[in-house]
Amino acid sequence: MITDSDKNMICYFIQEKGDITRWCDWEKRKTDIAIERPELIAAINNLEIAKRTLSAIVENIGNEI
Fold first, then answer.
1. What pLDDT does 23 receive?
2. Nearest to 13 by CA among 3, 2, 24
3. What distance in Å separates the CA atoms of residue 64 and residue 56, rounded to the nearest whole number?
4. Do 29 and 21 contact (CB within 8 A), yes or no?
5. What is this structure's pTM?
6. Which of 2, 10, 49, 62 is the most buried (most CB within 10 A)?
7. Which residues contact 27 (CB under 8 A, 6 or more apart)?
8. What is the reported pLDDT for 8?
9. Are 45 and 39 in contact (CB under 8 A)?
């Protein structure tokens, strides 16, 4: 079950810090969160993929100069 404290931490670390993995309880709570909010886990995973893709594209552009 996702607690109110979990919800606050999720919002804080995503909105304010930009990185949910900075939350010290993330790894411990991730499984419970995935059960109740699989779309959140999917969005976080997609965000990481998008960041890596963007970095690769920008690096490729830099190599063209």
1. 98
2. 24
3. 13
4. no
5. 0.81
6. 10
7. none
8. 98
9. no
- Predicted confidence at residue 29, as pLDDT, reads 97
Q: Whole-angstrom Cα distance, residue 15 to residue 9?
A: 10
Number of structural domains, the chain? 1
Residue 15 is predicted with a pLDDT of 97
Give the residues of the chain that fall short of pLDDT 50.
none
The domain containing residue 47 runs over which residues?
4-64
CA 35: distance to chain centroid?
A: 16
C-alpha 25/C-alpha 6 separation (Å) is 9
Give the pLDDT of residue 65: 81
DSSP string, 2-53: --HHHHHHHHIIIIISS-GGGSTTHHHHHHHHHHH-HHHHHHHHHHHHHHHH
